[in-house]
Each structure stands twice: as C-alpha cells, then as structure tokens.
Amino acid sequence: MGNLRSVVKAIEHVAPRAQVRLTSDAADVARAERVVFPGQGAIAGCMAALESCHLRDAVLAAVQHKPFLGICLGLQALFEFSEEGGGVQGLNVLPGRVPRFPPAQMRDPQSGQVLKVPHMGWNQVRQVRPHPLWAGIPDNSRFYFVHSYYADAAVRSDIAGETDYGIRFTSAAARANIFAVQFHPEKSAAVGLRLLENFMAWDGRG
Amino acid sequence: MGLAKRIIPCLDVDNGRVVKGVRFVDIRDAGDPVEIARRYDQQGADEITFLDITASSGDRDTMVHVVEQVAEQVFIPLTVGGGIRKVEDVRRMLNAGADKVGINTAAVARPEFVKEAADHFGAQAIVVAIDAKQTGPARWEVFTHGGRKATGIDAIEWARRMADYGAGEILLTSMDRDGTQNGFDLDLTRAVCDAVPIPVIASGGVGNLDHLADGILKGHADAVLAASIFHFGTYTVAQAKQRMAERGIEVRW
Questions:
Q1: Are A115 and A106 in contact (CB under 8 A)?
Q2: Using one digit for the tens of pLDDT, what is the confidence trace for A157-190?
Q3: Looking at chain B, which runs of residues are DSSP E strands?
Q4: How near does any CA of chain A get to the CA of B76, in Å?
Q5: How far is CA B60 from the centre of its chain?
Q6: DSSP character at residue B68
Q7: What is the CA radius of gyration of chain B?
Q8: Residue A123 contacts B, CB cutoff 8 Å
Q9: ipTM computed for the complex
Q10: Parallel, antiparallel, or unpaired for β A96-98 and A81-82?
Q11: Among residues 65-104 of chain A, which lie with CB inside 8 Å of chain B?
Q12: How far apart are CA B81 and CA B69, in angstroms?
C-alpha cells in the first residue's frame, strides 16, 4: 500500500463530508461517484495488481465517464507503454509513452551540474491550457514530484500541464472526465489540497 | 526555472516527544511533534524529517502514532528514521503516513536490506542515512551508533553502492561537524554529491543561514537539513529561504 493512505487523508481533509474508501474491490470502483487512481513503486507491480484484483475492467469503465484523477503511476499507467522494468503495457487510454529520464545526460542550465534521478522535490507546473482543476492555483505553482520515468503525451490537446527537468514532460494530462498528474497533490501543501478540492467539486467536464 | 532546492527541518523524537526543546514563543506545547510539524509547514518547510531516538524498541509504537497524527494535518513529505531494521518496520511507517524511511545501521549490518526495501516499496521511499567522519585527507569513513562505531567502509564508495542497491536519496551527516554550528563539511558533501546519480541531503553543522546556501552552492547538495537553528527560533524556514534566494538559489515560496 505504501502511502496511498496519504491520498485518502488529504481528500478527507478537503472534503470532510465525502465518503472516501481505499479499495482494491472492483465493485467499489463501479459504485463510486468519482475515482482516484494513485500509485507508487514499480509500474509492473501496479499493472499486475490491477489484473490480479480484477480491477482493470473497472478502471477502464471508470475512465469512460466518471470524474477520474490519476496520480503519479496513476498518470503513467494511462498511457500506451512504459519503458520501466524492461517494458510494460499500460492501459492505453491516452496515446504516448513513458520513458526514463536519461541518467547523467541532463544538466542544470544554471549550474551545469548533472541533474539527479529520481526527479525529487518541488518543481513548477506550467498550465498549458485552462481546466476546472486549476481553479485558484496560480500558473507555475510548485508541486512535489518524485519519479524516474515521465509521460510523453502524443496528443497535444491531452496535455494540461508541463514541467521542465532536463527535458520537458507532461506533468498533467487531461481529456474529458480524466485528469492525471505526475506530482503528488496530497504532498504539495496548499496548492495540492486546492487541486484535490477542485477534483472533489468537479462534474467531469474538461 | 526548475527544481527548487529543499530545506528540511529535522526533529528528534524520544518516546513521542520532541527533544532538544523547541522554542517557539507562541507554541502551547514545546514537545508536541504535531504542533511543531505544523509550524514548520506554515513557515514553508519543503519536507519534515523525524528521527526516532527512542532507546527501547518496545516503545516504537509511539512513533507510529506520532506519524499518523502528523500525516492527518501536514500535507508535505514526511521522512522517519531511527530503528528501521526490517521490511515490516518500513511498511508500518509508510502505512502510518510517512513518505520515506531513513535506513542507517541496518544498511551497514546487511546491505541487501536496502535492496529488499526498495523492491517492496520503490526507491522513492528509501533514504539511506550515512554518518561519516574524516579519517584522512579526502577520506571519510562510515560510522554507526551515533558516530561511536567505525565500520572501515569508505563513505563515497558506500554512497555509490547504496544508490546501486536502490536508495532513492542519501542523507549525509558529517559526524565531525554535527552539533558544532561551524557549517557543513563541504568537501565531504561535494565528494558524495558528485559521486552519486541520486539526490543528496546535506546535514550536520549548520549554525547560520549562509551555511545552508554553502551546502547547495559549494557542496552541490540537492537539499539541506538542519535542526537546532530552527528549533531554537534563531531563524525561521522563511528566513532561510530568503537568504538562499539572495544567493541565487531557486527555492519554493
């Protein structure tokens, strides 16, 4: 489980009247009004767990019409393919791939120092298009990231936010009722809580 | 613009109480970890680290409850170190709401533990803490048991090995400087930071705000950790960020 509980605590904090359930039961996902899809660790384990818990179909059904928020691996898993662990097929909801940051090749433009992987800490998110989940969050706000692989969305209109770290990557993706972020809103202080609050109030229309 | 350098206050917790007496003027309970963590969060701390110094392992449950309470009210990354010896210890802390655990003595005793923990929970959750002491020109050795026990292991080699084993981050403490307020051991910090591909947190010796900036600019650290300058109210985290920004370092406001 890791710190999936942190996501629950943060949502309960911004939406005290909501009934939040941490679940691996497909029936719960099917009944839910809105779905949060967080993930940490390795994507192979994440995809395998979706299969073994028979959650794959429930998640694919949810992304069709429910307000859906992917977090970290929950963003990466929506794409076609991840390079992690020798290559893992994703859910293929959004076109694009998930490559690794090229180690030792990325340099800080200012200091010239090698950029470390994982990309860990507070980086800026450029809001490349308006979205209800950005409400009240200043453009270029800093969110907390920790990841070694990044999403490279193939369809420009699926990109809601971009971040620079050696290369430019998709730090927020959005299509219809789906919003997904590479950073951790549950660990991103006030702006992260605001994003979760916006999600809890969202009707699922982009 | 890019990734901000992080400032991380560290709290020593003994049996559920913060020790070294935090002196905030308007705080109700100077030993309450929840209240102190909230204060640091309000000041703009980028993360908070708890070091559990409880002597008896039987009292470790207390730390789990502390982490649970803090995680309900503070929404920035939390790291817990001290007494993490088994995969089960890691699981308990992460389930309680910690984002990362610090592993020190147990990694020296059995390096494979770091691999196992990283495989289970992901590299992002595993911080290897290294306590280093200078033993010769440009040579530092890993010590355990609060700097009392030499291991014969070269600190730079050890940092590389721990990165290979799946550590997501290194917390590097100079035992020569810890508690002195004379500033980080910048040679040590730079040697380790330049040797590993993962982020390094510099620790040990901070006495003023320029020491923090030096750790980044001269030590090449990705983050800086300090305890007493913040606890005793000498400086706030916001003042530390102000000084770092004045010296050209990117920080989060």
A1: yes
A2: 999 999 999 999 999 999 999 999 999 999 999 9
A3: 6-14, 17-18, 48-52, 78-81, 100-103, 126-136, 139-144, 149-154, 169-174, 200-203, 223-226
A4: 4
A5: 19
A6: H
A7: 17
A8: yes
A9: 0.93
A10: parallel
A11: 103-104
A12: 17
Give B22-64 pLDDT, tens digit per residue.
555 555 566 889 999 999 999 999 999 999 988 776 677 899 9
Residue type, B201: I
Which residues of A are less than 8 Å from B64 in CB distance?
none
Task: Report d(CA B138, CA A158) in Å as an integer.
Answer: 51
pLDDT of res. B188:
98
d(CA B175, CA B177): 5
For the record, the structure tokens of B108 come out as 């020296």
The full 3-state SS of chain A, as one line of letters, equals: CCCHHHHHHHHHHHCCCCCCCCCCCHHHHHHCCCEEEEECCCHHHHHHHHHHCCCHHHHHHHHHHCCEEEEEHHHHCCCCEECHHHCEECCCCCCEEECECCCCCCECCCCCCECCCCEEEEEECEECCCCHHHCCCCCCCEEEEEECECEEECCHHHEEEEEEECEEEEEEEEECCEEEECCCHHHCHHHHHHHHHHHHHCCCCC
Contact A152, A159 (CB under 8 A): no
Q: Does domain A4-201 fall into CATH 3.30.559.30?
A: no
Nearest beta carbon to residue B222 from set A6, A116, A188: A116
In chain A, domain spans: 4-201
For the question of residue A72 being annotated catalytic, the response is yes
Question: B202 vs A6, B3, B130, B146, B211, CA distance in Å?
Answer: 26, 17, 10, 16, 11
Nearest chain B residue to A191, by CA? B75
* β-sheet bridge partners, residue A36: A69
Residue A174's identity, in one-letter code, is: A
Question: How many angstroms separate the CA atoms of B157 and B174, rounded?
Answer: 16
Spatial CA neighbour of A199 closest among A14, A4, A8, A1:
A14
Partner-chain contact A187 B1, CB within 8 Å: no
Task: State the amino acid at position A126 in one-letter form.
Answer: R
> Quick one: B242 exposed, middle or buried, by C-beta within 10 A (0-12, 13-18, 19+)?
middle
CA A165 centroid distance within chain = 17
Backbone φ, ψ for residue A147 (5° rounding) = -165, 155
CB A90 within 8 A of CB A82: yes
Q: Which residues of A touch B41 (CB under 8 A)?
A: 189
- Which residue type, as a one-letter code, is found at position B131? D
The whole-angstrom separation of Cα A26 and Cα A49 is: 12
Locus of tokens 């009210």: B73
For residue A165, the one-letter residue type is Y
Q: What is the pTM of this model?
A: 0.95
Active site residue A83: no
Rounded Cα distance between A89 and B61, Å, is 40
